[in-house]
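Q: Given only this backbone (545 positions), what sequence would you predict?
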């Protein structure tokens, strides 16, 4: 700390320290300078360090965070019912009731339009409440160290493009111009792509929120050993006394008596947590009445190995799912049966109504023990499984079912307040949905999984590069696939013949091996196996087929 103060004159350096007996201290250090001394080498008299016991404050802070997380969890279950049933009512109103009312009955038509508008408000406000609750849960998980981070080499420009696409409607709605200013050929960074997209979306959304006219610039630059991303607006700006508060939790800058607070005050603190987890930094520059610049820097890792630049794992997983879905399903029954497992009766009823509307037969279980029993007796085509249940939770139920030969092949969709993908991946869970549930997305995923049939699909990964082979295998295992690996053409053919996998993934080198591809296509029993070829393509696609 003393060394740090010598290079940062006038600044206060802070650090948390252990005081012994499980107590926490906050150390503050700064330099003491001589006045009227021109020679910088002689200016410093030394450093002063103050250590304050903050154990009680940290414990109170932790209790507050835990309380907020608990309350947020409890809110999400009833919110799931509100959103689900409101969506069902809206759909019935638009598809069944409104068309049945005679055109000449203007009074009823007007009343139905009002009902429809009110339902839209319910859905919109419930979605806004969901977003606020998600912010509280995010900050609670980050502070407790319970966030799952998935680092991968990523093109920063692709992160910005995804965030811009997600916020484009905001710019159109507010008639603001978005200026893209990206340096060419920016190097890849090792980051959690989705989390960095979350940061940029938040900064862009804030820029729109506080910019009444003009433009917002999204800029990306390479600065020595880091990538700097800046969001520059021509908005209302931030007063000097408020700049230090913007990254504090639950702080709303500006006059909250005259301006309606928008959000929880957690968006920027979450951004700060995400950036700092990547060993980066985030800051703001602003002038009241002229605009603000929010910027963050992510350091480059010069020691990173070039991990299969062409391989976009997200795109590959999507391609695998689509390939399996496109294959002719086996043992298809006329009517598919789904087992819904949830201890909340309202959630079960909401799911029943939504699924029966799509033609599925529904069986229900209200706890884990009943779920295991019904899975064995009913033999459903798919299981929708809640995690938080009394006595035995959803993960334990999934573990029992996936290790029983009678039920191991049944696809399982988990409904959870928070995602524990690492644990779920080890158990072979096929898909996750967080509450409140996106019904349209759930129905799409159910359809995809049912087309696939058994969830225990086997993928043969073929690559001569140990790093590529391991990366692909880990990603596929995480998604619940059985993975077999081969490092050369002979092993590929041998294992393909003996195992007859559902899919074969060939890296760039083996994709160009015409003899190998020909043999795979002509070998009896492998004619209908899907092949996916990886090759050097644009980062957007990540694969060729």
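A: Predicted residues:
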């Amino acid at each position: 700390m003393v060394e740090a103060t010598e290079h940062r004159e006038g600044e206060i350096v802070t650090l948390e320290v252990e005081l012994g007996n499980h107590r926490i201290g906050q150390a503050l250090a700064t330099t003491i300078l001589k006045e009227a001394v021109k020679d910088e080498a002689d200016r410093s008299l030394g450093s002063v360090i103050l250590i304050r016991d903050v154990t009680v404050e940290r414990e109170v802070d932790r209790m507050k965070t835990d309380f907020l997380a608990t309350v947020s969890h409890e809110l999400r279950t009833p919110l799931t019912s509100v959103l689900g049933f409101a969506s069902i009512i809206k759909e019935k109103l638009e598809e069944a009731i409104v068309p049945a009312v005679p055109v000449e009955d203007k009074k009823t038509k007007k009343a139905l339009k009002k009902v429809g508008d009110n339902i839209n408000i319910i859905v919109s406000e419930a979605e806004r409440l969901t977003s606020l609750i998600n912010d509280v849960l995010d900050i609670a998980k980050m502070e407790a160290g319970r966030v799952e981070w998935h680092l991968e080499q990523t093109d920063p420009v692709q992160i910005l493009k995804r965030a811009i696409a997600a916020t484009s409607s905001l710019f159109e709605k507010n008639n603001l111009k978005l200026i893209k200013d990206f340096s060419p050929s920016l190097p890849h960074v090792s980051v959690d792509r989705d989390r960095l997209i979350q940061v940029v979306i938040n900064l862009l959304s804030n820029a729109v929120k506080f910019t009444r006219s003009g433009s917002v610039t999204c800029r990306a630059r390479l600065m020595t050993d880091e990538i700097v991303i800046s969001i520059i607006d021509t908005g209302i700006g931030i007063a000097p006394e408020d700049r230090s508060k913007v990254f504090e939790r639950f702080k709303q800058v500006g006059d909250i008596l005259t301006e309606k607070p928008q959000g929880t005050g957690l968006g920027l603190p979450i951004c700060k947590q995400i950036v700092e987890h990547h060993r980066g930094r985030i800051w703001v520059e602003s002038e009241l009445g002229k605009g603000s610049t929010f910027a963050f820097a992510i350091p480059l890792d010069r020691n990173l190995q070039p991990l299969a630049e062409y391989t976009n794992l997200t795109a590959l997983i999507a391609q695998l799912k689509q390939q399996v879905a496109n294959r002719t399903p086996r043992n298809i029954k006329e009517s598919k049966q789904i087992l819904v497992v949830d201890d909340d009766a309202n959630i079960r009823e909401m799911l029943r109504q939504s699924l029966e509307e799509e033609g599925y037969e529904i069986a229900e279980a209200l706890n884990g023990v009943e779920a295991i029993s019904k899975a064995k007796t009913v033999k459903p085509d798919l299981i929708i499984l809640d995690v938080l249940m009394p006595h035995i939770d959803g993960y334990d139920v999934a573990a029992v079912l996936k290790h029983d030969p009678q039920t191991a092949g049944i696809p399982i969709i988990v409904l959870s307040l928070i995602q524990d993908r690492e644990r779920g991946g080890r158990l072979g869970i096929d898909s996750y949905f967080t509450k409140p549930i996106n019904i349209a997305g759930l129905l799409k995923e159910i359809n995809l999984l049912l087309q696939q049939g058994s969830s225990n699909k086997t993928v043969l990964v073929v690559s001569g590069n140990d790093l590529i082979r391991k990366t692909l295998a880990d990603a596929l295992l995480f998604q619940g696939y059985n993975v077999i690996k081969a490092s050369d053409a002979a092993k590929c053919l041998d294992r393909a013949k003996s195992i007859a996998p559902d899919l074969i993934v060939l890296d760039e080198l083996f994709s160009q091996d015409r003899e190998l591809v020909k043999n795979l296509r002509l070998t009896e029993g492998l004619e209908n196996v899907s092949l996916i070829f990886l090759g050097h393509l644009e980062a957007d696609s990540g694969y060729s087929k």
